[in-house]
Write a structure and sequence with these properties.
Elements lengths: L6 H20 L5 H8 L3 H29 L1 H18 L6 H18 L2 H11 L4 H18 L1 H11 L1 H22 L28 H12 L3 H31 L4 H26 L4 H24 L4 H10 L6 H12 L4 H30 L3 H17 L17
Length: 419
């Protein structure tokens, strides 16, 4: 039997690391109420710390791409895992809000910002010529699924053993990523004597220019900012982040608890969304290899907007209103990533896509950070999240129209893939 290409091993390692990193970043959604109870901090204060985490997660992306290009995914991933694990573990010692900001906001934000979708996009560009969309869809799904499927287990730990037990568990998993990366990760196919998966013999392999990571990141922003496509993709991703990580990822569990749902059951709702996201986002990657990515984005943002407009009624409806929302919204959680990366690759080239997508992802996280704080403010001032859900839904519908203006043609810009 023919030995599988090592690209699949690298993909598997990256999948696991993105899964754990995303789960760590999502943990605060089940800590909001316990931190309120133990320390007496307001939901606005805790939401601001989470917003800082989300913001740094995004802003570090372009610079992370520069470090990955210079030092390689293997070393950067291992070092980031250690930073993430130690920063998470130190959180159990907090006594004051500034410590939550410094540890969870800054250290964990930076660590998860490096082990994020920019890493996934870079790995896919280096290791895959065929099946790029499918590979990126799988990695994107792992990041989104990691945010959600761990939550029932962590919520159960919080209920039975206190919030620190959940934090210690995630710290241990984060530290475990370092030896996994060092043992199995490889920076490029030529280290194993290979070409990227599916690339014809003799075709040159695109390589990024090795330069100072900060100069590379700023240079990519200066180049991309002159393009209409960059602003369309960044603007749409701003709304994507606001309507997913910032709003639903941070506040759905406490919103469910506001309506009398136990924390473990509310976290299980997010887990259902994670399972369906694994299906939806992997499928989106497959579709992005074959169909017009602008139409895909129009569909995703439109359906997401409708589901968010429905959510306030799902809370008060009889029957399975929230379950319907979890399935419908879960299929679309971050299915937007593969088409967005495909359009960025079309506009800026394979060798620049990691850096440019880093800035697009930064816009995603700025939107998420603002939404996390804004939703917390709305809940504190109005006693309900309903207005936040309705605003986010309306913005998604407007974005669905805007993405149709991205790209220069009706095709995805990808080279036809074999198989």
């Amino acid at each position: 039997m023919k030995k599988p290409h090592y690209a699949w091993t690298v993909l598997g390692v990256t999948f696991v690391c993105l899964l754990i990193s995303a789960a760590t970043r999502a943990t605060p959604s089940i800590l909001i109420v316990p931190l309120e109870a133990e320390f007496g901090w307001s939901r606005t204060t805790i939401s601001m710390a989470i917003s800082l985490n989300i913001l740094l997660y995004g802003l570090i992306g372009p610079f992370a791409a520069g470090f990955i290009n210079r030092y390689g995914p293997r070393r950067v991933l291992a070092a980031s895992a250690i930073l993430l694990g130690l920063g998470t573990l130190a959180t159990i010692t907090i006594k004051h809000p500034w410590q939550l900001f410094a540890l969870w906001g800054v250290l964990v934000g930076v660590g998860t910002g490096i082990i994020a979708l920019v890493l996934g996009a870079t790995v896919v560009q280096r290791w895959f010529y065929a099946h790029r969309g499918l590979a990126l869809g799988m990695l994107t799904a792992s990041a989104a699924t990691g945010q959600l499927v761990f939550l029932p287990f962590l919520a159960k730990l919080v209920v039975d053993h206190g919030w620190r037990s959940a934090v210690i568990t995630m710290a241990a998993l984060a530290l475990l990523m370092a030896p996994i990366a060092l043992l199995f990760m490889r920076d490029r196919p030529d280290e194993k004597g290979l070409q990227p998966l599916g690339q014809p013999e003799g075709m040159p392999v695109p390589t990024a220019t090795v330069q100072n990571p900060f100069a590379a990141a700023i240079g990519a922003l200066a180049m991309a900012s002159r393009s209409k496509e960059f602003w369309i993709l960044s603007g749409s991703f701003f709304i994507c982040g606001a309507s997913t990580n910032g709003l639903i990822g941070t506040h759905l569990v406490p919103a469910c608890m506001d309506h009398g749902m136990p924390e473990v059951q509310a976290a299980s709702l997010l887990a259902v969304m994670g399972i369906f996201d694994l299906i939806g986002t992997t499928g989106s990657g497959w579709l992005s290899d074959r169909f017009d990515n602008r139409v895909l984005l129009f569909t995703y943002y439109g359906l997401r907007g409708l589901s968010l407009l429905y959510l306030p009624y799902g809370f008060v409806s009889q029957g399975h209103g929230l379950s319907i929302f979890a399935v419908f919204y879960g299929l679309d959680w971050i299915a937007t990533v593969p088409p967005t990366v495909a359009l960025a690759r079309q506009a800026f080239g394979a060798e620049k896509v990691g850096l440019v997508f880093g800035w697009v992802l930064a816009s995603h996280q700025i939107g998420a950070a603002l939404a996390a704080s804004f939703a917390g403010f709305i809940r504190t001032s109005e006693g309900s999240y309903d207005r936040a859900f309705l605003i986010a839904g309306s913005l998604c519908l407007a974005t669905a129209i805007g993405v149709l203006f991205a790209g220069r043609g009706s095709k995805s810009g990808l080279v036809p893939q074999p198989g």
